[in-house]
Amino acid sequence: MSHTQSHAAASPQAAKSASQVAGVSIAGLHKTYGTNHVLKGIDLTVDPGKVVCLIGPSGSGKSTLLRCVNLLEVPNEGTIHVGGFETTDPDVNLDAMRRHVGMVFQHFNLFPHLSVLQNCTVAPVKVLKKSKEEAEKTALANLEKVGLKELKDRYPGQLSGGQQQRVAIARALTMEPKLMLFDEPTSALDPETVGDVLAIMRQLALEGMTMLVVTHEMGFAREVADEVVFMDGGVVVEHGPAADVIGNPQHQRTKNFLSRVLDPNAVEI
Asked: What is the pTM of this model?
């Protein structure tokens, strides 16, 4: 079932309203590290409620682009709008903006000294000023969504990598974000746990969450993404509907990349 079909099949209660999700608009974005020009004038729009997957070889600028969206990396030039915020405005209220943006990293970034439940409640209590009871209610609902409610009292060190990543997703959702950023969320996982994490991401897409995802999971991108962006060398090489970019790429560089990813044993002659 395609993502578009999934949307149609979702119940009205499952879909988020326009006020519950945020779009992203990126224009003329440049990022350099010394003499290394990592992003070279990126233009990209993610409409509210849509899923966009960023694919491409290592070093192409995908993760840097993602990290620029919530200013974990500060771009040298260009503008980024997230919902009603221009994140590249020097006067932007970063804390207010980041409350609307959830991010899931490659390596989980859980607090090892806090339980699963505490990991999910510390930010809502400290940042959103929610009561402990209210934060726990929301956290438990999200832990149930990711299938880990029964492990709420365990510590990260007692969980598998896949379970830790599912907790990280629940933690991000407990802040009630309008946009979710995923930076290669399955690349550090054992193959047998990847499916659990992707299933949760599919469900978020079904519910209408705006998602910008850096991934090497081509099956997920083809099935769930509304649009796929192929990046290489700091530029957008190809951008369009997932079925087109993955199923019928127009650029030779995209074709070469996908042939290697989809058939790792292929040898170029």
From this structure: 0.89
